[in-house]
Design brief:
Adenylosuccinate Synthetase, Chain A, domain 1; 20 strands; 12 helices; 21% strand; single chain; binds inosinic acid; 3 domains; Adenylosuccinate Synthetase, subunit A, domain 2; Adenylosuccinate Synthetase, Chain A, domain 3; 32% helix; 424 residues; alpha/beta
Length: 424
């Protein structure tokens, strides 16, 4: 049984908790896109871990973890993350963590180019995580990237690194930035390569053989579908395919090998970084921030907040092919007298069921809301669907109808026990 877990909005939907829940039954956990721009907070065995690149199956003994070919790996960040996990008592070996030899490498210079490009955009900046993600994927499609396979032979690695550092430095200078120290860059990457070398292999046959022998794979999506470079709020997106299709191209497991696709959404919407957000609502943001919710896990920055956007979720459920939606953070709405769901967008005299492709049009859209009565009760102690207030049950049912995808589970708090099944 191979399952995909995909963020259906702009990331930070609480995928970590859903993934942790499903990891128990998985033999292998795979990351197939993005890089250390992701930040998964996972509470396992009573301890809190923040993971960026390493799949969360690492927190479980006996699980294989794979970083697939679609991921961009920053070698120094990965070595640091492995050290952080080892310090917390996590066992990491070349047997339980495999890195695809086709995954592309983020160099320190890519981070500097990312920052320089953002600066050059001025008021139009994307609001990237400055982890060098975009410039590394750009190298991939320009066919000038360095891949993990280049790490295997140190003499070869030194040659390709020196060449790329030189051209990347020319790019930095063109952007008006000082060149990076080539010796220091070379040293840092060569050192990290030495640590990572034993983990590098061709992961594609490993995953396909596992599928054939009945092993279960869990694909851990990073970011969210609206940050997908094809389907998201382009250009305010990340540079990978964060949607279901990206799990196949980013791992080498074919579409026929996928059994179940679970979308994760919040009961409302949040986003970090710039870009259109039709159902954004300042009062809801004040209310959620006042509860101490919706501050970035890594940066502590307040996230932008708004009501559930049915247009985005309907689109997301369609192009991802979600079998069901796992909703998180329902308890965040416990004290709201009324709750809005955006059912369509108004654009001039047009009513849109799906978002427009042009960002200039998306920015002009206004929300058409359906307003439902709140439940005004604490849901955090509810342990089953039957215990949820009637208005809350009605919200979940209506939510599923609007987005065209049933809600399969709902989270009413951060604890593992605070996830309830929703009948559908
Ligand atoms: P990049 O992925 O660093 O290039 O950033 C591009 C956009 O994606 C920015 O708006 C980021 O804030 C957003 N982004 C990237 N990773 C995440 C994530 O894990 N959660 C939420 N937003 C993200």
């Amino acid at each position: 049984m191979n399952t995909l877990v995909i963020g259906s909005q702009w990331g930070d939907e609480g995928k970590g908790k859903v993934i942790d829940f499903l990891t128990e039954d998985a033999d292998i956990v795979v990351r197939s896109q993005g890089g250390s721009n992701a930040g998964h907070t996972v509470i396992a065995h009573g301890k809190k871990y923040v993971l960026h690149l390493v799949p969360s199956g690492i927190l479980w003994p006996g699980k294989l973890n794979v970083i697939g070919n679609g991921v961009v790996i920053n070698p120094t960040s990965l070595v640091e993350e492995m050290a952080y996990l080892r310090n917390l008592g996590v066992d990491i070996t070349p047997q339980n963590l495999l890195l695809s030899d086709r995954a592309h490498v983020v160099l320190p210079i890519h981070k500097e180019i990312d920052a320089a490009q953002e600066e050059a955009l001025g008021d139009h900046k994307i609001g990237t995580t400055k982890q060098g993600i975009g410039p590394t994927y750009a190298d991939k499609v320009r066919r000038i990237g360095i891949r993990m396979a280049d790490f295997i032979d140190p003499a070869h690695l030194e040659i390709v690194l020196k060449a790329r550092i030189a051209t990347a430095n020319e790019e930095l200078v063109r952007l008006g930035h000082p060149a990076a120290d080539p010796q220091e860059t070379l040293r840092a990457v060569m050192e990290a390569a030495g640590e990572l070398r034993p983990h590098i292999t061709d992961t594609i046959p490993v995953l396909n053989r596992a599928t054939k022998t009945g092993k279960s794979i869990l694909f851990e999506g990073a970011q969210g579908a609206m940050l997908d470079v094809d389907f998201g709020t382009y250009p305010y997106v990340t540079s990978s395919n964060t949607s279901a299709g990206g799990c196949c191209t980013g791992s080498g497991v074919p579409p026929t090998g996928i059994d179940k696709i679970i979308g994760v959404c919040k009961a409302y919407t949040t986003r970090v970084g710039a870009g259109p957000f039709v159902s954004e609502d300042a009062d809801l943001a004040d209310y959620l921030h006042g509860l101490g919710r919706e501050f970035g896990a890594t940066t502590g920055r307040p996230r932008r907040c708004g009501w559930a956007d049915g247009v985005v979720l309907r689109f997301s459920a369609m192009f991802n092919g979600f079998d069901e939606m796992a909703m998180t953070n329902l308890d965040g709405l416990d004290a709201c007298e009324e709750i809005k769901i955006c059912t369509a967008y108004k654009l001039g005299d047009r009513t849109l069921e799906f978002p427009p492709a042009l960002i200039s049009e998306w920015e002009k859209c206004t929300p058409i809301y359906e307003i439902l009565p709140g439940w005004m009760q604490d849901t955090t102690k509810c342990t089953s669907w039957k215990q949820l207030p009637t208005n809350c049950q009605a919200y979940l049912k209506r939510f599923g109808e609007i987005i065209g995808c049933p809600i399969g589970s709902v989270g009413v708090g951060p604890d593992r026990s605070q996830t309830l099944s929703v009948p559908h």
